[in-house]
Structures are given as structure tokens and as C-alpha cells.
TrEMBL record:
Catalyzed reactions per annotation: [protein]-peptidylproline (omega=180) = [protein]-peptidylproline (omega=0)
One GO CC term, this protein: outer membrane-bounded periplasmic space
Record keyword Isomerase present: yes
UniProt-annotated stretches for the region Disordered: 424-444
GO molecular function: peptide binding; peptidyl-prolyl cis-trans isomerase activity; unfolded protein binding
Protein name: Chaperone SurA
Organism: Lysobacter spongiicola DSM 21749
Length: 444
């Protein structure tokens, strides 16, 4: 829950600045995004928020036009994701927004009324903050739905990842700096990109800038303002072209420039750990179950999905075979081919709502239809066992890591396609945000 609230709050602050009172709102359109717009005041508040985050190290930020480009692109993607979420039937109720706002206030040691006063003193209304929270929840649910429909992890992939971890002996937390090269780049464009990445490496080597600051200032990657952080990866989850290089690097070490499919990169090994360090021993309860899922989406309303689930439940009560109905009707592609079989899992592996329903059943019992964010489920619990947490946590960690890597790859591709298909018109005066650039030589 804390991680979820942190993600929601961080996203909301992209459009609701903690220093909004220092920005003079401008009545004008900064960017047109399909049928929506980003106001200049929105962009200014988002830029001000980034500057507030870097208040103690403002010299690490790129020049104003480059920073504005990065922030504008983030806002464009946010608008596109919110629109896609709404178009595909994703909804967030007022009650859910109220609960999230209350939780954020509580985490900051305040009541909602006190939070409202703090926002007002900073030039932001509670209504604007609520709208930002709603947008971030919509995007999170869109991403969750995307993961459920587009990403699956097989047991064979988990086995292979664990074997790779044992052979490699560790997991790596990585960061990168990317200098992009366009498709069909000219020799001059390639040389310019190579010169830039070499200049960035030189700045870091001379101690003039640390890696995270250089990523924020010079990287073309979407995670530039996050210091280029790529998270934890096992050796099997690192592209083969880089895997041997990473295995030979020490924590804190930075690679020489590497040419990849997207351009030139610098890789940093931030830290290394033994996978066992992230697990805890002891025994845990595991459940074996099968399910039938009817999704709620742009073609199926919540009421329609429930009606279909109720019909299937009635057929089960009448003696229909669970596996046959799951194979024919379940909309979970990762389990329907196996008659809905989910294998063995811990209570929270598929989320607390789903796990709570499974835990309440007896072995052999079939649930009534129930709702989660994925849609309407019917579950049949088939077994229970006690298992060693260390081994299970290793497998769960490997499964989550593989799923996250797949999700990142597919989600990035999805965002690029959505951005490429969108009509985006920058209306700002002077150089458009999309055209801004910087090289290390600009600051020498």
C-alpha cells in the first residue's frame, strides 16, 4: 500500500507543484494532445516541481529548454494514457479518490483538511489535487490491465532464471544513460551521438558530475529524471550483448560507451546482491486453484461481465465441468489453456482481493462470482500445503522480476506506438520542447 501511495503521489506531483505559488500562471496552451491540451500553467507547475525535487542540487538539472522538453513529454504521455484508460472502460470512483487522498494526508501526518490548507498555501486547490490523483490511478489501472492481458510468465522461464542466477551468482542493480540515434541515421548523426556519450563519460570520470546527475541532464531515456535507474536484474534478464560485461563489473563501476539498437549507452552497476538476501525463511501456506475470469473492458461493462459470471456459476452448480468452462470462457490467456489452473501460489501473489477469496474457501469448494480490478472471477480451490518460504520466495522473486522486465519492454513499446500515433503540437514560443538538446560541450 505504501509503495502504491508513493507512486500515486509522485505522479500527481508532476501536475500539481509543491511550489506552485512561485509560478505565475499563463493563460495559454502549451501543447495540443489529440483532443486534449496541456496548459502553459500546467507545464510551468510540473517544471517547478522537478526543480523543487532538485533544490539541493539544481546544478544537476539540464538547461531550461531541455528540462521543459523532458517534462512536456511526460505530460503528453500522461494525457495519452489517461485518455486510453477512459476509452477502454477503466474507471476510478470518487470514493477511491477520497480514500487515496486521505491515505496520502495520513502518511504526511495531516488530516485532509490540513492537506487542503497546505495545498492552498502553495497555490493549488484540493480539487486540482484530486484530479491529479484520479489521473494517476487511471494510469496505474491501465498498466495493470495491460500486464494481465499482455504479460505471462511460465514455470520454465522461472526455472531458467533461477539456473542463470545460480550460474552467475548474483543480481545486479543497473542504471544507464542513453544517447539516442534515429532509425536510418546518417554517419554524421551517429558521430554526433558518439561524441556526446564520450563527452558525458569524460565529465563523470573527471568528477564534475555523478552518474545520476548526468542521466538527468543528458540521457534521452524516459527514466532520465530518475537518474537512469533500471532496477534489479538477474544475469538472465540482461541483454546478452551486455551480460558478460556486467558480470565483470564492480559496484559503482561505469562501462565505456556501448552501441546498442537504440543508440549509445553508458551502464553503471549500482549494486550487486545474492538473491537469497532478498528472501526470508520459514514456512508459508500455498494454495492450488483454478479460476474463470470475465474481464471488464471497453466491450464488456461490469454488469455484463457479472451477468456472464453468474451464468457460468449456475452451470457449475448444475454439474458442468470447471476445466471445460474455463477453457472455453475464461479470458485469462495464461491459465485458460490449462482449464483455468493457476498452479501453487501464496495468498497475496495475485493481489489481496483474490487471495482473500481463495483463503476463505475449503479444498474442493467453488466460490461465488467476485470482483477484482481484473474483472469477475469464479475460483475453485483444489489444494493447500505448507512450503519453505526461502525457495518459494526465490521463485516468486524470479517470476516477478521476469514479469516486470516483460512488462517494461511491452509497456515501453505500447507507449512509443501510442505517442507515434498521437497528434501532438507544441505551441510554446521559440524552440519546441521536442527539438531541445544539449551536449556536454555546451557547458564547458
Amino acid at each position: 500500500m505504501k509503495k502504491l501511495l508513493a507512486c500515486v503521489l509522485a505522479g500527481a506531483l508532476m501536475t500539481v507543484s509543491v511550489q506552485a505559488q512561485q509560478v505565475q500562471p499563463i493563460d495559454g496552451i502549451a501543447v495540443v494532445v489529440d483532443e486534449d491540451v496541456i496548459l502553459q500553467s500546467e507545464l510551468d507547475r510540473a517544471v517547478a516541481n522537478i526543480r523543487a525535487q532538485y533544490a539541493q542540487s539544481s546544478q544537476q538539472l539540464p538547461p531550461e529548454n531541455v528540462l521543459e522538453r523532458q517534462v512536456a513529454e511526460r505530460l503528453v504521455l500522461l494525457k495519452l494514457q489517461v485518455a486510453r484508460a477512459r476509452d477502454t472502460g477503466v474507471r476510478v470512483s470518487d470514493q477511491e479518490v477520497d480514500q487515496t487522498v486521505a491515505a496520502i494526508a495520513a502518511q504526511n501526518g495531516a488530516t485532509v483538511e490540513q492537506l487542503s490548507g497546505q495545498l492552498a498555501s502553495q497555490g493549488t486547490s484540493l480539487s486540482e489535487f484530486r484530479d491529479s490523483i484520479r489521473d494517476e490511478l487511471l494510469v496505474q489501472r491501465l498498466r495493470q490491465r495491460f500486464a494481465q492481458t499482455q504479460v505471462s510468465v511460465t514455470e520454465a522461464e522461472v526455472d531458467a532464471a533461477l539456473e542463470s542466477q545460480q550460474a552467475a551468482g548474483g543480481q545486479y542493480r543497473l542504471a544507464h544513460i542513453l544517447v539516442g540515434v534515429p532509425e536510418a541515421a546518417t554517419p554524421e548523426q551517429i558521430q554526433t551521438a558518439q561524441s556526446k556519450i564520450e563527452g558525458v563519460k569524460s565529465l563523470i570520470d573527471r568528477g564534475e558530475m555523478d552518474f545520476a546527475a548526468a542521466a538527468a541532464r543528458y540521457s534521452d531515456s524516459p527514466n532520465a529524471l530518475d537518474g537512469g535507474d533500471l532496477g534489479w536484474r538477474s544475469a538472465g534478464e540482461i541483454p546478452s550483448a551486455f551480460a558478460q560485461l556486467v558480470r565483470n563489473m564492480q559496484p559503482g563501476e561505469i562501462s565505456d560507451p556501448i552501441r546498442g539498437p537504440s543508440g549509445f549507452q553508458l551502464l553503471q552497476v549500482v549494486d550487486v546482491r545474492d538473491p537469497a538476501e532478498a528472501t526470508e525463511g520459514g514456512m508459508v501456506t500455498q494454495y492450488q486453484a483454478s479460476h474463470i475470469l470475465i474481464r471488464v473492458d471497453d466491450t464488456t461493462s461490469a454488469d455484463e461481465a457479472k451477468a456472464r459470471a453468474d451464468t457460468l456459476h449456475a452451470r457449475l452448480q448444475g454439474g458442468a465441468e470447471f476445466a471445460a468452462l474455463a477453457a472455453e470462457h475464461s479470458q485469462d490467456p495464461s491459465s485458460s489453456a490449462r482449464g483455468g489452473d493457476l498452479g501453487w501460489f501464496t495468498r497475496d501473489q495475485f493481489g489481496p482481493d483474490f487471495g482473500g477469496q481463495v483463503a476463505a474457501l475449503s479444498d474442493g469448494e467453488v466460490s461465488a462470482p467476485f470482483r477484482t480490478q481484473a474483472g469477475w472471477h469464479i475460483v475453485r480451490r483444489t489444494g493447500t500445503r505448507q512450503s519453505d518460504a526461502g525457495t518459494d520466495n526465490l521463485r516468486a522473486q524470479a517470476r516477478e522480476s521476469i514479469g516486470q522486465r516483460k512488462l517494461e519492454d511491452e509497456w515501453d513499446r505500447f507507449l512509443r506506438e501510442m505517442r507515434g500515433e498521437a497528434f501532438v503540437d507544441f505551441r510554446g514560443e521559440g524552440e519546441q520542447p521536442g527539438a531541445a538538446t544539449e551536449t556536454p560541450a555546451d557547458n564547458d
